[in-house]
Design goal:
With 243 residues, this protein is α/β, with parallel strands linked by helices. It has eight helices and seven strands, in the order E-H-E-H-E-H-E-H-E-H-H-E-H-H-E. The chain binds NADP nicotinamide-adenine-dinucleotide phosphate (NAP).
């Protein structure tokens, strides 16, 4: 079945991995809603690149951890582009702290942006996917969920939670033509790695180099095209972790 003219929502697509996925989907003829929280110029730049492939795009500002904002965003995408067939739960923040330093406020913030968002967005999009008997849910988790990572227990728990959601959605939705998979990247040269984590060396990565956002996006496109892979976690990690 062709994926041309499907409609995707990519959360956190103003930059980094989300931006690369939005552009890669557009190259396949998919119309893309580009979500962001603060970087309007970045989201508009993503939209221009998306539109250059002859598909429709929509920049849409919404905090994916906010239930009302998510419902409003999904409604607006449905009105302006159409029902969402492909959901990429990508928006996320990293949090680096020791176990002793972590606060309850940190817990709520990171869990809500990284994990609650993947529940809220999926719940808001699932009606249309069921109606069409076709859908793709891709959760951008992290190698941190598999190895413990270099960040904090909180980030690790949020990303491990996404893998749990991936399994649950796969079990619940496979009879409806809807697949659910996770991608676990590391380490991809984006703001999250260079500015937030301040990692400037690839020495820890077995392949000896950072990955590119485009290398993650290629896997997202493969998962959108494939109808028989579900409930899987695909590692894009330069040899960091084998499974
Ligand atoms: P990034 O460059 O920091 O981009 C983060 C994106 O998320 C931005 O578009 C940002 O929007 C958006 N965002 C943040 N909070 C949001 C909120 N509350 N509501 C809506 N959008 C929000 O990060 P990245 O490296 O591309 O990471 C993308 C995903 O991959 C994240 O989930 C991350 O945990 C995961 N990941 C990344 C790596 C890596 O090596 N880079 C490794 C493993 C997993 P604004 O631009 O408007 O702020």
């Amino acid at each position: 079945m062709s994926i041309r003219d499907k409609i995707a929502l990519v959360s956190g697509a103003s930059r980094g991995i989300g931006k690369a996925i939005a552009i890669a989907l557009a190259k396949e003829g998919i119309h893309v809603a580009v979500n962001y929280i603060s970087d309007t110029a970045g989201a508009e730049a993503t939209c221009r690149e998306v539109a250059s492939f002859g598909v429709r795009s929509l920049a849409i500002k919404a905090d994916v951890s906010d239930a009302t904002a998510v419902l409003d965003m999904v409604r607006e995408v449905q009105e302006k582009l159409g029902g969402i067939d492909i959901l990429i739960n990508n928006a996320g923040i990293v949090h680096k702290a020791t176990l002793e330093e972590l606060t309850v406020e940190d817990w709520d913030k990171v869990m809500n942006i990284n994990l609650r968002s993947a529940f809220l967005l999926t719940q808001a999009c699932i009606g249309h996917m069921r109606q069409e008997s076709w859908g793709r849910i891709i959760n951008i988790s992290s190698v941190a969920a598999q190895t413990g990572g270099v960040t904090s227990p909180l980030y690790v728990a949020s990303k491990a939670g996404m893998i749990g959601l991936t399994h649950s959605y796969a079990s619940l939705l496979m009879k409806n033509g809807i697949t659910s998979n996770a991608i676990t990247p590391a380490l991809i040269k984006t703001d999250m790695v260079t500015k937030d984590l301040k990692l400037d060396s690839a020495a820890k990565i077995p392949m000896g180099r950072f990955g590119t956002a485009e290398e993650v996006a290629e896997v997202a496109v493969m998962l959108v095209k494939n109808a028989y892979i579900t409930g899987q976690t695909i590692n894009v990690n330069g040899g960091w972790y084998f499974s």
